[in-house]
Specification:
Helix 3 (82-99) runs parallel beside helix 4 (128-146) and helix 7 crosses helix 8. The protein has helices at residues 2-21, 44-55, 82-99, 128-146, 165-169, 172-179, 221-231, 268-281, 304-307; strands at 31-34, 37-38, 60-68, 73-81, 115-122, 150-154, 201-205, 210-216, 241-248, 253-260, 286-292. It is of the alpha+beta class and 323 residues long. 34% of the residues lie in helices and 22% in strands. It has two domains: 31-205, Formiminotransferase, N-terminal subdomain (Formiminotransferase-cyclodeaminase, Chain B, domain 1, 2-Layer Sandwich), CATH 3.30.990.10; 210-322, Formiminotransferase, C-terminal subdomain (Alpha-Beta Plaits), CATH 3.30.70. Strand 9 and strand 10 (253-260) form a beta hairpin. It starts with a helix and ends in a 16-residue tail after the last helix. Strands 1, 2, 3, 4, 5, 6 and 7 form a seven-stranded mixed sheet that branches.
């Protein structure tokens, strides 16, 4: 009797498991982050139009946007699933091309176009290949419909030389105008010449990047450039660090503007230690610093705001806050 009871129970359990296994699995959402940079920082009306064009797309969240006069640059961070993010990125690129004349642009940051760079970053449930597909699709649409030449970079690059964004933007718009269509500078999509007012655009796929600026209490831009050279990877400095020194004329000081492309190799604390060391050797005081856009939680550390002398930092600057 005991044997029969156990046998019967086993059959019942088996049926229950079989029934559960036949239920359709829920598809995980694929969240993508997009951080486009636009060549505008003075004109509030144009800034509102660009940000508004992103917000108008359903199921897209604008998490952050910032701009300033000296860089004359707008950086927007938004997030959503693949199709909404694709639509928002195209809408913003189109709006920028309609309202920005790149020939009149002046700013300390390198630039090649109205919509200067449009990167896609995998966040939750998505992979870098999803971002590569997005970059290629957007590149084709921008090239075909807006007639803007498109350069693919990062993991989306087809040309090994142009994989690195600095190779595309080196020399800025002037260099692109003379080099476009040549062997090393053939656009991946669109015409083989610069758009008369929108210039060109770099569209890519990459991992998280941290944009970090350090302001120095000095007006000598040569000193800022020297510090930038000492810390950046290409000049045998820190791994994953790209840096330039620029003047902030409106503030009467200079800035070391940094992109951290591999924060797990060189974190914010290590970077700040290196900048502080070089500044101390020159007798330069650091005024403050800023993070442009958002950062992954893994890149933060206790007491970070005070250690980095950040002007403005709270949980709202952490990507995971929105997840």
């Amino acid at each position: 009797m005991i044997f029969n009871f156990i046998k019967k129970s086993s059959k019942q359990k088996s049926k229950t498991i079989e029934k559960a296994d036949t239920r359709p699995a829920q598809t995980e959402k694929k969240l993508i982050e997009c951080v486009p940079n636009f060549s505008v920082g003075h004109d509030k009306a144009v800034i509102e139009k660009i940000v508004g064009s992103i917000r108008s797309v359903r199921d897209v969240d604008v998490l952050d946007h910032s701009y300033d006069d000296d860089h004359n640059r707008l950086v927007v961070t938004f997030m959503g699933e693949i199709e909404p993010v694709f639509n928002a990125a195209f809408s913003a690129t189109r709006t920028a091309s309609q309202f920005i004349d790149i020939n009149r642009h002046e700013g300390v940051h390198p630039f090649i176009g109205a919509a200067d760079v449009v990167p896609f970053i995998p966040v939750k449930g998505s992979k870098i290949r999803d971002c590569v597909d997005l970059a290629k699709r957007l590149g084709k649409k921008v090239g075909d419909e807006l007639r803007i030449p498109v350069y693919l970079y990062g993991d989306a690059a087809r040309n090994g030389f142009l994989k690195h964004l600095y190779n595309i933007r080196h020399g800025g718009l002037t260099h692109i105008k003379s080099a476009i269509g040549s062997k090393d500078f053939k656009p991946d999509f669109g015409p083989q010449n610069i758009h008369p007012t929108a210039g060109a655009v770099a569209i890519g796929a990459r991992d998280y990047l941290i944009a970090f600026n350090v302001n120095l209490e000095i007006d000598d831009v040569a000193a800022a450039k020297d510090i930038a050279k000492k810390i950046r990877e290409k000049d045998k400095g820190l791994k994953g660090i790209r840096a330039i020194g620029v003047p902030l004329i409106s503030k009467g000081i200079v800035q070391v503007s940094v992109n951290i492309t591999h924060y797990k190799q060189t974190g914010l604390k290590k970077l700040m230690d290196a900048i502080r060391k070089e500044a101390d050797l020159k007798g330069i005081t650091i005024r403050n610093s800023e993070i442009v856009g958002l950062v992954p939680k893994e890149a933060t550390f206790p007491g970070m705001k005070e250690y980095l002398t950040l002007e403005d930092f709270d949980d709202g600057k952490v990507i995971e806050t929105y997840l």
